[in-house]
């Protein structure tokens, strides 16, 4: 236990050193990245992976399971560092940026949203420190969640239950979207955000995502065609590389 407490992580979210980009454009570039997960050093995930997403555009990452799509999200959030190559935002290597500062500019919506045993309001407010009621209201409107939240017994103060058991899958996902959008991120990462939903819930959540993707740099990891119809760029990942890349018409 003491060894764990004393351990100095290579990527420290509490480290305040590094550059702070006050007004980022949101250009994303992954340049010739090679990567293996530390827990699986014998498995090569990326071998010369490169991707460029210009500011304000939406890029869809598609490919079979195990092709490294979700690993892109992990590298952009800097949960891991590449073994070689660079991950850049606005042409600055992610390693040179203050981690807390850049994560405040990035919103993440994953396949399985994590909700805490507290109220709807506090689950959303987790996305931004000292968020105001007006900011929370704007976020739930954008996330297409205001109608169902207002119908809950106590509205925003309704308890969601352990892991959000009092809510449906679509409702939980819209709360996760509201949480991600609360800080008005310049970059939005969507990791198969609708893949666990039924068709009806998917349409509602996809409408919410279409609302929040506007005027942001967005990376969408997708399996379903419905999630990539409105993207600007589609990139196909296969065996650790981008093998096809093109703009949508």
TrEMBL record:
TM regions (residue ranges): none
The keyword Transmembrane helix appears for this protein: yes
Membrane-related topology note: Multi-pass membrane protein
UniProt xrefs under CDD domains: ABC_MTABC3_MDL1_MDL2
Segment forming the signal sequence: none
MF-aspect GO terms: ATP binding; ATP hydrolysis activity; ATPase-coupled transmembrane transporter activity
Subcellular localization, as worded in the UniProt entry: Cell membrane
Residues covered by the ABC transporter domain: 28-249
Keywords linked to the UniProt accession: ATP-binding, Glycoprotein, Membrane, Nucleotide-binding, Repeat, Transmembrane, Transmembrane helix, Transport
Pfam families xrefs: ABC_tran
GO CC annotations, alphabetized: plasma membrane
Family: Belongs to the ABC transporter superfamily. ABCB family. Multidrug resistance exporter (TC 3.A.1.201) subfamily.
Record protein name field: ABC transporter domain-containing protein
Species in which this protein is naturally found: Punica granatum
